[in-house]
Amino acid sequence: MNFSSKLIEGAVQAFATLPGIGRKTALRLVLHLVNKPVEVSEQFAEAILSMRQNIKSCDVCGNLADEPVCGICSDTRRDQGLVCVVESIRDVMAIEDTLQFRGLYHVLGGVISPLEGIGPNDLNIDALVRRAESGSIRELIMAISPTIEGETTIFYLSKLLRGKPVQISTIARGVAFGGELEYADELTLGRSIVTRIPYKMQED
Amino acid sequence: MFLNRLLLTQFKNYAFQDISLSPGFNCLFGHNGMGKTNLLDAVYFLCMTKSHFGLPDSSVIQWESEFMRLEGHFILQGKAEKIVAKVAPKKVKTLERQGVPYERLSDHIGLLPIVFIAPDDTELLTEGSETRRRFMDNTLSQLNPVYLRELLLYNRILLQRNALLRQMAESHKKNTALLDVYSEQLIKPGQYVFEQRKAFAAQFSEIFLDFYRIISNQAESAGIRYQSALSDHALDWLLRQNLDKDLALQRTSAGIHRDDLECLIEGMPVKKFASQGQRKSYLIALKLAQYELLRTSKGVSPILLLDDLFDKLDPQRTAQLLELLGGESFGQIFITDTQAARVSTLLPSLSKSYRLFEVQKGGIQLIAESPSN
Question: Is residue B262 within 8 Å of B227, Cβ to Cβ?
Fold first, then answer.
């Protein structure tokens, strides 16, 4: 692409560094801003800058926050004794979207994988141990991806927390809701059979 | 089970070729470098989704061509099976069964069992234990998909454990809690692979001895022994016992990744004490035992590919082997040879149907066939 303006070229290059944005999309965004009043660009730039300068990581759970403690941790209506342990901030958002969980979170920031140079010390694990020792938590739900590295992380955490006054559970793994059994892959279906659960009658 | 018709498009040195095959013997004669082995590799590719020679997919495409395509019409338990493989640079390799592409290529492995005997296979006897573990894994994976899954799981955890051991040595910090986690995670898949290999070796060794007796004319005694540290101690114990050693070596020193299938002749290792001819006989017996195990477990006769096999065998052994292969328990067989006379004079006396082909610079021609065809 040839640009008549170095300014346009610079802006296109900046946009194109973002994930999921190629040079053509970047150009479209830049031209859109050019055709709008300058205030639109000012507001846009201000929103990005102020977000980046002021965003914090929650002292308690590691989630994104405006204040030292995030909106979820400071919400007293939520169940303070139930904590869901997740890999990333995106997982918090995914679970929040289900509207099924009213407890708190703990964001690890990844899973243990020495091959990629990620050890327990690189994750938000010490804070989790302190939270578990404080006695205010009854149950930790491990909502971690069912990969080999995820299994290692759950196993490691449960060993670390052995003897602490908390119960540890993991999210159920199995056949997708609304899916048909014949289309489920063998590994998932096999595991679902092995870890079957007692059937509960719907109560009227 | 057999391959009825094979079409090759821009595969290795073939521009285009369409050949109809015999359900019995298919012999390919021609000088070196004409493409006899390439044809066998095409058959192998359709059954195992890759080249037998460990070539990257890009190098099975004919020089300066854009893509390659293989089409095989198989008859499996009376039913026609059309398998198509396509490779093009920068595109995902696809394999289709009856016109439907596989989501995972590994799902295809085991459908059309196959055994390849190539001249380089003697490294199975002369090289390190890795080649023999691969031989066991190759056979067991065709028989049992759970085996392949547990093996891959074990290998992945092992990689992580070794990476941790290296990091602990570099940073001089011990994290034995995490090391324990990896050790415990290794146990279940490790014990499973061990049990499967042990059962395999017991079954395999008997079949092998039968074949070796026939091929070697009972000239010498032979034996196969599965060697694993897990035979004496549970993996759990081994990992705990070797902890200090592992920390010093920065890798896991005991486990199923160190297993071996010991090959003996007159009680001595084949690697050190066998002659060229003995090695060849030994190798053929190993591969035929693999064939027989696949046949009895799968209930179909695998395809057998014999590349340049008769080159180092004396006429008597050649005749004996052909008679064996002409028997009921063998199905479709592909043979390559530089000399036509060696095999073709013996074939008419066998009850199996056959076709003889001449291979010249990327072209194949039918030169003779059995009357029954």
Answer: yes
